[in-house]
Structure formats: C-alpha cells, structure tokens
Write the structure tokens for this entry.
Amino acid sequence: MAVAVARAPRARPRTGRRAVSGRRVAGGAVWIVVMGLLLAGVVALNVAVLRLNLRFDELTQERAQLRAENAELSSNLAARTSSPRTSSLAKRRLGLVPADPSTREFLDLRKR
C-alpha cells in the first residue's frame, strides 16, 4: 500500500523577479504612452487634412462662382459693344449716319 506524504511547498529562491516584473509593467506603460501619442498625432494629422479639404472645397465653389460672373460680364460686354447697337446709339444721340459707299474721296497726303 502506498502512502502519500504531503510535502511542504518549496521556497522559491529570491532572484529579483519582482524587479523584472516591475520593469515589464513599466515597459508596458511606456509602450501604452508611445502608442497613445502616435494615435494622437494621427488624429491631429487627419483633422488638419480635413480642414484643408474643407477650405479647398470653399475655394472651388468660389472659383466656379467667379467664372460664372466673368462669363456673364463677358456676355454683357459683347452685347454692349456690338456694331448694330453702336450705330443705333450714334444715330440716336449724335445724329450720325453711315457713309454712302458710292461717294468716296481720297486724301493725297503727299501734298502739303
């Protein structure tokens, strides 16, 4: 018959495991802080890019509006400087009439 004998637990030799364990915890905390800083940097960078994109969109809309205004002004200018409008204004305001093409006179610039 076998008899089981209870043995006393062995005492572990003190080799500084708590110091090693403490370094591991401190090292883990350092990594957590480093990763937190990196994440904060990524978030800050994304916010900056978002702001730039919003400003770019505003400028694009402003450019489109200015181009539309320029096209409208160009059209108005072309309408105001058209030949029929100019001749009708000259006739109405100044009493000018177009010259008759059959009557021509040439100036001799050699005689002075």
Observations:
- The mean pLDDT is 84.
- Residues 12 and 18 are 12 Å apart (CA to CA).
- DSSP finds two helices and no strands in the chain.
- The helical segments are 17-80, 83-94.
